[in-house]
Amino acid sequence: MTAAGPHGSGRERVLRGAIEYFAAHGIGDVSMRGLAAALGTSHRMLNHYFGSREGLLTAVVDAVEADQRELLSTLLRDRETDSRAALRHYWRQVSDAAVTYGPLFFELSGHAMQGRAHAVSLRESLIQPWLEPLELIFQRRGSDGAQAAVQARISLAVARGLLLDLLLSGDRAGVDAAMGHLIDTELGAR
């Protein structure tokens, strides 16, 4: 444990607190002052760490994405696990998180596409870091490097599309069935 506490730096501790706050209360229209009070810090410190509300929200999306990639990497390290069951479990965790963070994810993805300064870092973190672990899944299934790269990109696009579908339609059963089909036909172990 460091002087900054069990969660690392002050910035990291505040970021983790914000993620927990948003998970419990949703994103909504919480102000920086309201969030600061809930986190036991000051509006000034939030601005110091993140620059703006949008900067904080971008950091939240980036951190949630990194956590989900780490969860996927952990799943891939355990080669003894039934990959279909593990991927279904992973999908459930990701889609549950999307209910809270998905609207923010898609909104800030739009900001990144528009080149807004607070979201430009997402251009680097929302696609490329996902491709390598997904390529590994396909390589383990016997695809060569180029084919695995294409399959990884398609799978990421389908997963993101299904998350958008879930947020818009609320059809959990339909979205889960579609992902189950993808897992059974494309992602699960042979």
TrEMBL record:
Keyword Lipid metabolism in annotation: no
Alphabetically ordered keywords of this record: DNA-binding, Transcription, Transcription regulation
Coiled coil (residue ranges): none
InterPro entries: Homeodomain-like_sf, HTH-type_TetR-like_transc_reg, HTH_TetR
Residue spans binding DNA: 31-50
Location of the HTH tetR-type domain: 8-68
GO MF assignments: DNA-binding transcription factor activity; transcription cis-regulatory region binding
Name recorded for this polypeptide: TetR/AcrR family transcriptional regulator
Organism, as annotated: Amycolatopsis echigonensis
